[in-house]
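Chapter review. Work through the record for Large ribosomal subunit protein uL4 before attempting the end-of-chapter questions.
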Amino acid sequence: MEVKVINKTGQETGKTLKLSEEVFGIEPNQHVVWLDVKHYLAAQRQGTHKSKERAEVARSTKKLLRQKGSGGARHGSAKAPIYVGGGRVFGPRPRNYDFKLNLKVKQLARKSVLSARLAENQLKVVEDFGFDTPKTKAYVEFLNALSLSGKKTLFVVNGSENNLYLSARNIPKTKVVDVNSVNTYDLVNTDTILLAESAISPLETILKD
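Structure tokens for Large ribosomal subunit protein uL4:
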């Protein structure tokens, strides 16, 4: 399949680029997309939550009342969970939420999102360009030219385009990432995907391996 290449002003350059059917033309698999997004979000969790249980609360272990004759149950410590200030029963403990997900599943998820975006006309290929110095205004003008102002955009570039990254980082709903750092969550969590012309070949190589 072929797509038209546009420049940073939103105009067609007259060039077309052939995209791999294996990456941009497959039948989307929504389940693996869900799995990969779940895997990404789970890995972001710190897992440092903790509450004190009965053995960890600093309170007296003196018996609160006599063992017999009170007409009620025996109580041996103020650390018991039934008392205010006592330990929590089965409270949360530090843990790692990450889980294993096969590489092939991750690749299929990313190909599914790219294929769906292309079919919905939410993926554009942009001719390579760069900024001499970081300038937010220049990146805003780029988004305005493509009628993407105020929309969620993900710009996938090839290599270290530091000036592009610095120009876009203060703009809400906008993200610039290197082609080697693309993940399914970022692809899903955007309205429009912009692919730099030079990023197509490395992206196809990564997703075909």
